[in-house]
From TrEMBL, chains A, B, C, D:
PROSITE patterns: GLYCOSYL_HYDROL_F4
Residues noted as binding Mn(2+) in the record, renumbered to the chain: 170, 200
Keywords: Cobalt, Glycosidase, Hydrolase, Iron, Manganese, Metal-binding, NAD, Nickel
Residue ranges of domain Glycosyl hydrolase family 4 C-terminal in the record: 196-410
Cofactors required: NAD(+)
Entry-linked CDD domains: GH4_P_beta_glucosidase
GO molecular function per UniProt: hydrolase activity, hydrolyzing O-glycosyl compounds; metal ion binding; oxidoreductase activity, acting on the CH-OH group of donors, NAD or NADP as acceptor
Protein name, entry field: 6-phospho-beta-glucosidase
Marked site (Increases basicity of active site Tyr) residue numbers: 111
The keyword Manganese is annotated on this UniProt entry: yes
């Protein structure tokens, strides 16, 4: 077995130990020989902290893997086989701004959906397209496995503006299937479903337990259990019971940002005023994590990491990388080009969908028309995403305004304009394309 | 020249004199010989009032046209050539409820867009499908020219559930072109444009003055004039200037319900609390109109009628009827089946679009893909419309809930459920399909 | 009224007097002030011959139009308003080769359909794309009205590889409608129909006489009259009666090359062996025409010209030019981009279809799906056309082979290869792109 | 493990021992407990002959499987889990007619492609739709695995006119992949490819050896080896080398009926005049096989059976049945509904394509647009197939004529009519729908 070089951009992220944990567990089938963690100058301290832990974990595992820490991206990318990204341009402080500015106007403050997702995309896309340019030169056959949010939008930018092979990854679908498995007290592997939509906007039907369709039963449990937690192990969607009955599919929990928009905005404002926004709380958690990481006695991923929900990310990412590496022809849910998978979205769109994964990448399974009850929402978010990508690439103010104005959670173009102006002012350093 | 029989359902509407005025003006090219006004028992008084005026107008015009008033719809439909509809199931009182119930929850109260359009469709579609059944028996070759709002949704129901030839009509596009004509101080006939969308959700580009493309100039004037009334004759969209610049097309003013949703809701609540909702004000105006109509000395349409904006309706309707009758092959904007006109909406959808009108009806002009900056909005409203039609035909509570929940102006499914329940309770008498 | 400059490329064609005749008749609505005839050096003699007649015709008509003859294309194109093309690269001798080579292998020898159309496209497309380049520089706003065969293929090349506004024109649809008019002894203007397909591969249904659908009656007459000439004035399709009944639409007579392929090939071989191919006979007719044209006493188009069937071309071309010039919004059948007019062909394809013609060009009328009974044929010819355009632009031997091999009238790829090799050898001087 | 009941309609076919051989080999993963062979009264002798062998084979294998022979279809279908079909309505004599009638007119005589496929479909579809009706009553959840040719057309009829779950199966793709494996001297399982088209009209690209793209190398070998057998193990397409180079994909050998039509017809006529048509030769082989089967000492499938090429059929069928039964999520090539897999064919079409097979059936992998060099051919055959299904279901003479006339290998509608009339006369007993 030869070299297998994996590079993680944003290697200083507190999630990295999760990812490494996945590589360690799978080392037999996915024998990573070189693991490079890359971060920017501003993240050097975190890189060294997390890097230290990584090195101790590898040592303890006793596997054949060298670990490299660097702020020189191009050194790392040279001849890489897989490049994973989990970057956060502007760090958590930028995220906190992304959340707070729309909340000021009574608009959702969330980092992947709504204005926050728009803003994160504006900062992130130029950086990742630069990465792609480097890859085209230094490792043109490598796979770019993109965890960076908003994963669907970012992957669409890469598909439209780069020749690098890429997939966008999210743990959402995996978590949904895990929740079904818990409901029936079976192994995750026994559960499968038809899954379709956009990143953070997917829904599942044709839910199977070992190939037997349990959809009707599961949807009935969903409706019965919703909003009152009385049913053990049934995921609680927090939606009105009659609405869940009407849906007749299983939505990702992120859909609540659309379906309970008014209530979620109220809740976010309350949280901001009390414990701080989600970003502020993450910052606190992260601080604690890095304290743990700095402990030279720690040589496995700490329990506390689970509180950030990273386990599924790691599992999703590693199993997809392994499916590519081993030409497994397994079905996974990924962000990839539509190309006719559903006719209700443009061909050049990136969708999140079931696809067969093999050495050549993702081969989506034909879906056909979307059901009307979720079609409009998905289509309107896709139009927003398309404009968001265009704005991020061109730096055109008007395109940016149209993007924000077309988001279904932005209640007026006057407010869109205010949010945009505040955002551009607050992110000046990260938006060369607009200046 | 033989018989030409026109029937107006909802003949007791205060708009009827406008329509007759159009028939009188065009009597040479469109020699209506029989004009039947039909209304329900509850509208008999208005029918007689407006019918009296109609008879006096015909007499004064000295044309060969007999006028018939009846509450027996089937008598009127027998051998009709054109049937126009302007019915209002539940009268203005139902409209006022449609407006007030959503406003209670801070949601748009408007009779064609948002929850109001949904509710009006639930009352209206069953009645119009009954009309179609009568027509299939009594005048299967007649044209149904539908003015009844929500015109696009109602026409989609007819296209999907009846074999009767029908077109949905709205004066919106005509008014837009008139506004362009005023801007350049030219005749309306000199102006044309590419127009696309859904009823009350259209936009125009490729604006031509005698075939010369004046789009860039007109859009610049729109942007300059907006929001400040300083430019004489330029339509004021009331939208932020940069947004108008970004749009690069000319939207129907109804788009403000989506683009200025928060502001419009606030304004409507204020109006409701002061002068009453639009429906309440219409009721007052109507009362005055009928007082005028009852004056036996009046034998032409009164000036006051213009305040309800009916002139364009009359012109739009009569010119389309004449284009059919005379096989004119003129281009008009109508509500008709998509059938591939734009791939971004389902084939079986009704769209509002430029179409060649001849004796065989509407032949839409190919449009291709919608621009992203309005595509998502149109697609999400279309999904709402599709569910609305299905709910009106099946009377299925869950479908109705999904319809309301999927409207882009409804901010949460919890609120959708409340509005629906209030609506169903308030409209019990008009919703046989739900009981 | 200002300047209106029209340029005819291939001005030395014997058809030019027809075209001029059309301009003279319409001089009031289409006041051509400058008419430039352009031809290549090799066609100078013909140019002068036909040019002389043109000048005498203009003089006799007493209209305000100057006539210019030149072999300097760029001089003519400068500031042109309309450019019409009727070029024949390689003259009639090349056509005769196009016909004879496939006949050698028992394959259709026809100049627009089958291998002949392929070969003519290879010679013609590079020249017309050069013309377009000149136009982009010298008259970027001019309309290119392309009569040059194969009109659909050539127009597709221009649409795909040039920014010049263009339409492809054929008299076929006009002749079909004239034949319907003759059947009912009415004016051509009373007849209209839905027409769809590709150039020389169209069919008509929804046939209207003053807006009344006479399709069923006309199709019955077609079936009754076919093959035996017994019905006066009914077009004889020469197809089996039951097949005509089955068709239930009205096909262009060119369809016989596909539906009677075996018989047509036999007939062509017989004709070749007796009176010569169609090209050889055209050459003889042309010789006679030029003798007439050289007569200084002739100052109108000679009767004999009609034997080449050019009258409909002239009428079709002039009425379309006038529809553009006068922003008429009339419906004409033209070759223009599909763009979704029918989903059964690629968007970037050129189709022949009903379109509204105004100052901005052609706006096709939405068609929807093609009927299965002609869909396959049209789709397979379109695939051939697409490959033919690509071969003409790239000069790629393999693409050319695939084009010929995919034509439904070529019975084997072995024969396709032989025809291609013979063609390339015989046309060496006209195919710079292949060398 | 409970009951697993498999029924084979046309059980008296000489192929049945192959199929059983497959079931025996896979008995661990696919434990068939009841195997029913059904045939019509006229096939009773063959049924008993082959049934005897089957029983001896099962006995020798020592597996837990009961074998039932019956001419009472409904008895067999009751509670079946899988129903396979390999019926031949009219036996081999009908096939021989199917071949000889078109050859009389110089048209391809082949049992699945061209007129022969049309005729076989007319006899077969009504019978299989009757089977489906029985299944809807007796085993509504069973899978219908259809081997009966023309497999694609027959499966389209079932998809359009029955609710039974069905897949059409053909060994072609499997054989192609085996040929690639032989070329590289690797195991069949190491090879995969993207495969698309219609039954007997598929092509492969993106050919992978353990996930590595070997397409360029393989296509080069194909071109080098073609027509001269000099390259060991490379499949010989018998096509001109330059054409194979131009193709840049790997076509099923059946494509030669289209690409070498003239040559194949000549060859078939020669064969008919010498050794007899393929059907006649099959009849002779079959006679020999049944003599072997009647030998009570034979208790395994005889070597001679391989000469009919059935091994791949058995393998294809059994592995697909096992993939369903065991919910394997493996990729197989099957005939199933398009539903958007490629936009170049109607949604309701059956295509032959890569699909993930699990307990719920086939989930095709998104393909997108077809390449132009094979698109036209596939589309024109699909239009023929669509008309063929419609004719078989309605028994409409005109539809049948349009179907035959639209086949790309039928050189004129006059000949189509002659073939159709001869066919209808010769098959009178098997075509209740036409009488």
């Amino acid at each position: 077995m030869g070299k297998l070089k994996v590079v993680t951009l944003g290697g200083g992220s507190s999630y990295t130990p999760e990812l490494l944990d996945g590589f360690i567990k799978r080392h037999k089938e996915l024998p990573v020989t070189e693991y490079w963690l890359v971060d920017v100058e501003a993240g050097k301290e975190k890189l060294e902290s997390v890097g230290g832990l990584i090195q101790r974990m590898v040592k303890k595992a006793g596997i054949n893997m060298t670990v490299h820490l660097t702020t020189q991206r191009r050194d790392a990318l040279k001849d890489a086989d897989f490049v994973t990204t989990q970057i956060r341009v502007g760090q958590l402080d930028a995220r906190i701004q992304d959340e707070k500015i729309p909340l000021k106007y009574g608009v959702l403050g969330q980092e992947t959906t709504g204005p926050g997702g728009f803003m994160k995309a504006q900062r992130t896309i130029p950086v990742l397209l630069d990465v792609c340019k480097d890859m085209e030169e230094l490792c043109p056959d490598a796979w770019l496995i993109n965890f960076t949010n908003p994963a669907g939008i970012v992957t669409e930018a890469i598909e439209k503006h780069s020749a690098i092979k890429s997939l966008g990854i999210c743990s959402g679908a995996n978590s949904m299937m895990m929740d079904v498995a818990k409901t029936y007290n079976v192994d995750r592997k026994s559960i499968s479903a038809r899954i379709m939509g956009l990143n953070h906007l997917i829904f599942a039907d044709q839910i199977m337990l070992d190939g037997k369709d349990i959809s009707a039963d599961f949807f009935a449990r969903l409706a019965e259990g919703t909003g009152n937690h009385t049913l053990k192990n049934v995921p609680d969607l927090g939606l009105p019971r009659e609405f869940v009955k009407a849906l007749n599919f299983y939505p990702l929990s992120y859909l609540k940002y659309f379906w309970l928009n008014r209530e979620m905005v109220e809740k976010e404002i309350e949280e901001m005023n009390q414990g701080g926004t989600r970003g502020e709380r993450s910052k606190a958690i992260e601080k604690q994590l890095f304290e743990l990481y700095n402990d030279p006695a720690l040589c496995e991923k700490p329990k506390a990491l689970e509180s950030r929900g990273g386990a599924w990310y790691s599992d999703t990412a590693c199993s997809i990388i392994s499916a590519i590496y081993n030409n497994k022809k397994e079905i996974h849910v990924v962000n990839t080009l539509n190309n006719g998978t559903t006719r209700d979205l443009p061909d050049a769109s990136v969708i999140e969908t079931n696809a067969v994964i093999d050495k050549q990448g993702a081969h989506p399974i034909t879906y056909g028309p979307l059901p009307a009850r979720v079609r409009g929402l998905i289509q309107s978010v896709k139009a927003f995403e398309e404009l968001t990508v265009e704005a991020a690439v061109t730096g055109n103010y008007h395109t940016a305004l149209l993007a924000l104005a077309s988001h279904p959670l932005v209640p007026s173009v006057i407010i869109a304009e205010k949010i945009l102006n505040d955002y551009l002012a607050a992110n000046r350093d990260f938006l060369p394309q607009f200046h």
